[in-house]
Amino acid sequence: MTITTHANPLVQKAFGAPKSELHIHIEGSLEPELIFALAQRNNVKLAYESIEALRAAYAFTDLQSFLDIYYAGASVLLHEQDFYDMTMAYCERALADNVVHAEIFFDPQTHTERGVSIDTVVAGIDRALADAEKRGLTSKLILCFLRHLSEADALATWDAALPLFERYPRMIGVGLDSSERGHPPSKFERVFEQARAKGLKLVAHAGEEGPPAYIYEALDLLKVDRVDHGVRSIEDPALVTRLADSRVALTVCPLSNTKLCVFDDMTQHTLKQLLDHGVAVTINSDDPAYFGGYVNENYSAIVEALKLDDKEVYTLLRNGFEASFVTPVERAALVAKLDQYWTQDGSSAVA
Ligand code: HPA
Ligand code: ZN
Fold first, then answer.
1. Which residues are the active-site ones (predicted)?
2. 178 CA to centre of ligand 1 in angstroms
C-alpha cells in the first residue's frame, strides 16, 4: 500500500486504487541516480558532470528535445543486470502507486545499435518482471520500433525479435515511438502487417505532436488496438466520434504532455473533453523519471487541474483495465478488485 498522502480526498482515493499502467517506456523510468550508478559500473562517460547537472537539463521544449536526453541516458545500459535493475526500480515505484498490471514498452534499437543484443535486453527486463509478478504486479511487454529509423531497420529488428516472442510469453505486442513529425505510421505498414499476421497486439504513438491524420493512419493502415497519446484527436470531431464508438483506447500521459509543451499547462489539457465525448481515455506516466512523476502523480495533476469528479476518476481507472491486453477472466478480476475498493461493497461505481 502506498504511503503517499494528498489533501484532496478524491486524489487520495485514486492513489490507493488498484490501477493499470499501459504507457510506460522502461528506458524512461531510469532515474538520474541510477544513470550515474550504471555509468560508473560500466565505465560509460556521460556528458553531464553530476546528477544535479543532468536533472537540470530536463527542461524540454518539445518531443525531440526530450528524446535527445532520453537516448543519452539509455547509453549506460549494457548488461543483462542493468536492464534488470532498471526494470525492478520501476516495478518498486509502480507497486508503491498500487499499480497491479503494467504493459511496458522497450526500445530494442536504442540498445542494438550500441552493440547490446536484443536477447540481453529482454532477458534482463523479463527476469525483473517475473520477480515483480510474485509481489502482485502482473505485466506484458511491448516491443517498440523507433520511427526516426528506416523501415528496413524495423524489419531487421522484427526478424531478430521473432524467436523472443516465442520464448517470452509476456511479449505480446509491438508499438511505434520516437520522433513523430515527419515519420507517419504509413512508413511502418509492412512490419505491422507481419506482427498482425503473428496475432500480436498492436499500438502506436500518434497524435502526440503529429496531426489527426497520423491517428487515422494508425487506425486504418497499422490497425492498432490502442493509440498512444492521441490527444490531438480533439481537433477532428469525426475522429473523436470514431474513437468513442469503437472504444479504441487512448493511453494519455498528462505530465508528459505538459513537460513536452503539447499543452501550455495542465488546465489546458483536453482529457476531460475526450472523456465527455465517450472516448476510452486512460492515465499513464510515459517516461516518469523525466516528466516529474509516476502514475499517481499523473492522477493528482489531472484530477486537480481539471477538477474531475468521483465518477470520472473511476472511469479513468476502469478504462485502464478495460483497455489492457489481458484475458477476459483476468480483466473481470481486475475490474472486480477496483469496484471492491471504489465502492467498498463491490458494486460498479458507474452503473
Ligand atoms: N513519444 C514518442 N517517443 C517516446 C516517448 C514519447 O512520449 N517517450 C519515449 N519515447
Ligand atoms: Zn510514450
1. 208 (proton donor)
2. 5
Cβ density class 152-175: b for 16+ within 10 Å, e for less: ebbeebbeebeebbeebebbbbbb
Closest CA to 200 of 223, 181, 177, 217: 223
Of the residues 27, 208, 217, 312, which is catalytic? 208
Look up the pTM and report it: 0.97
- Phi first, then psi, for residue 249 (nearest 5°) are -80, 155
3-state SS class at 226? strand
Greater confidence (350 vs 322) lies with: 322
Residue type, 228: D
For the chain, list the domains and their CATH numbers: 20-342 (3.20.20.140)
> Quick count: other Cβ atoms within 10 Å of Cβ 303?
22
Nearest to 262, CA basis, from 205, 204, 224: 205
Residue 29 near ligand 1, beta carbon < 6 Å: no
**Sign of the Cα pseudo-torsion (79, 54, 296, 179, in order):** negative
- Give the CA-trace dihedral at 232, 238, 241, 243, to 10 degrees: -50
**Distance in angstroms (rounded) separating the CA atoms of residues 11 and 184:** 37
* Catalytic status, residue 312: no
Type of residue at 323? A
Arithmetic mean of pLDDT over the chain: 97
Rounded-to-integer distance, Cα 111 and Cα 236, Å? 37
Nearest-Å Rg of the Cα atoms of the chain is 19
Q: Quick one: which of 150, 225, 160, 158 has its CA closest to 198?
A: 158
166-214 residue pLDDT tens: 999 999 999 999 999 999 999 999 999 999 999 999 999 999 999 999 9
| Amino acid (1-letter code) at residue 264 | D
Ligand sitting nearest the alpha carbon of 255: 1
CB-based contact 160:120 (threshold 8 Å): no
Identify which ligand lies nearest to the alpha carbon of 70: 1
